[in-house]
Write the structure tokens for this entry.
Amino acid sequence: MEIGKGRSGGRDGIRTHDPGVANAVLSQLSYSPTRAEGQLQYIMMAGQDLSGQLEKMQREWDERARENARFYVNTERQDWTDAEFFQSGERTVAEEILTDMINICQGKDPKRMTVLEIGCGAGRVTRALARVFGQVYGVDISGEMVSQARAALVGMPNVHILRNNGKDLDVLGNVRFDFVFSSIVFQHIPSREVIESYVRAARGRLRRGGRVTFPVPGGLALDNPPDDTWLGVTFSEQEARDMALRSGFEMRYSFGAGTQYFWLWFFKPKFLSEAWRRHREYRLRVAYRRWRGKLGRVVRGGERT
């Protein structure tokens, strides 16, 4: 699903559950079964909520695609011609990618690179990417968008369009990538859990030294419904940096913090970075202190009995 500019800008133009929650539940099963059972029920309910959220995203983006796919991809106009629509994708690639080819390619021939677009929509940017890179894959949660993208790009044998489940990249099998790009897609995802799931999945498929580039909303938090599939959740600079570290990336660059288009450049290090080592050490210290605290409570409880 490709994105736009706010509620008036289209797909070109998003609540999370800490992984530590599950570990905390399991760690308490031995001495607090009632509390653990309640937390496990909460996690199961959260999973059901996420499933419903993804179903709603797919359904509503299918509806938008049937109504006017190109408008919802880029709401600058409602009556896009083929030429104008795909020229707008060329502009996106010229502005966001061709200006940074040294960092993206790192000495590689772009025609020998494999690139992924998350949220390919109707193929607006995908087509432009395929003219620069050797192999281009696009995924989208909307089957209607995927059908339109495939029809528009049928004459490009180096393009592969697939429908995914809206939160990971399992549909791609064992394909590995040199670069992952998303053109303002996460603006419409109402769940940080889904966004981070995508980021983690991208890291798992990137070759070492590869990079993922994407924007998130960076303005003030919006009081919109948690299942709104048009306006997504916002990120502060620190929240974006924490997400990068949790996902095994280095956030080397960013632009537009505090604005609607907060662009992030996440690099997959060839070796463990100093920032990641510090983050890992911090998490280990926190986990150790929590474990000591829980052990102390268990011991004190045993002494009282």
About this structure: The radius of gyration is 21 Å. The longest helix spans residues 33-73.
